[in-house]
Design brief:
The protein has nine helices and nine strands. The protein is globular. The strands form two sheets. It has a seven-stranded mixed beta sheet with strand order 2-1-3-4-6-5-9, sandwiched between helices. It has a two-stranded parallel ribbon with strand order 7-8. Helices cover 30% and strands 16% of the residues. The N and C termini lie far apart (53 Å). By secondary structure, the protein is of the alpha/beta class.
């Protein structure tokens, strides 16, 4: 039996009231419920306030470059297929700097879970529009309003037929924890896009704004791709939460345990010498 306390309790640099606190709490709950010990968890993250989450969790972690968390997570899973591997970062890091890695991860379908703290703003760098900011959103860097259309990660993931696509809200921590648990139990690439208010730099998409819009669809069948596409496009006056799409797919590298593969030292030496 694993307790939440085993994952530690650390001081953070997050602003009071930040949605990241509830995501951290929900993740601890999901790990404990599954009985996963801290030594069996590996989290990769990029840059940003969301990417600091593994700093506040007693587990194995890798904090890398902006937007590059997913390739690292995939390498970790290939080398350690028995580990519970997660990738955690924000909407800017994942869908902006790491946008192509996001698409490649969906196509490759390595067994890992991606948690995106989606607050529709760059929080660490004081509030520029991010890929998920709405057109017209006024920020310090865009005083006349964001001139780009918002990226819809859930819709893109469903369109590409990612195996597991879900949306959650940090203001619904019990539901969020359950969605994370289901995402980790899924064999393949799983995305949980988490609506997370930035209390300091996004004065539009607040707890109140989200709370008035989020809802739990009744009788939605996640295996129905067409219905999932329609639901994934809904973002505005109403925002559906839960598992939007789920399907079984071939998992890349299943059983490959790269860390234990035998190699010929002479072959390796020859490769290295070819660069001298």
């Amino acid at each position: 039996m694993v307790s939440i306390e085993e994952y530690g309790d650390f001081d953070t640099s997050w602003c009071p009231g930040c949605g990241n606190f509830l995501i951290l709490k929900s993740l601890k709950q999901a790990l404990a419920v599954q009985g996963i010990a801290p030594r069996d968890v590996i989290i990769s993250s990029g840059i940003g306030q969301a990417a600091k989450l593994p700093h506040y969790l007693r587990c194995n972690m890798f904090n890398g470059l902006h937007g590059r968390a997913l390739p690292v997570a995939q390498g970790i899973k290939m080398a350690n297929p028995e580990a519970a591997v997660l990738c955690v970062s924000g909407d800017g890091c994942t869908y902006g700097e790491g946008g192509n890695h996001f698409l490649a991860a969906i196509r490759r379908n390595i067994d890992l879970t991606l948690l995106v703290h989606d607050n529709q703003i760059y929080g660490l760098t004081k509030g520029q529009a991010s890929p998920t900011s709405a057109r017209g959103h006024v920020t310090k860097a865009q005083p006349e309003g964001n001139r780009s259309d918002a990226f819809n990660p859930v819709s893109v993931a469903v369109a590409m037929k990612a195996g597991f696509v879900a949306r959650a809200f940090s203001g619904e921590p019990e539901h969020l924890s359950e969605v994370i648990r289901e995402a980790m139990a899924y064999k393949g690439f799983s995305l949980v896009d988490i609506l997370q208010p930035c209390v300091s730099f996004n004065k539009v998409n607040t707890y109140g704004w989200y709370s008035q819009r989020v809802y739990f669809p009744q009788n939605h069948d996640p295996s129905d791709w067409g219905a999932a596409m329609v639901l994934s496009e809904e973002f505005g006056d109403r925002i559906p939460l839960g598992i939007i799409y789920r399907a079984e797919k071939p998992v890349f590298g299943l059983g490959a345990r790269l860390a234990e593969h035998e190699y010929d030292k002479n072959d390796l030496k020859a490769v290295l010498q070819s660069y001298t």
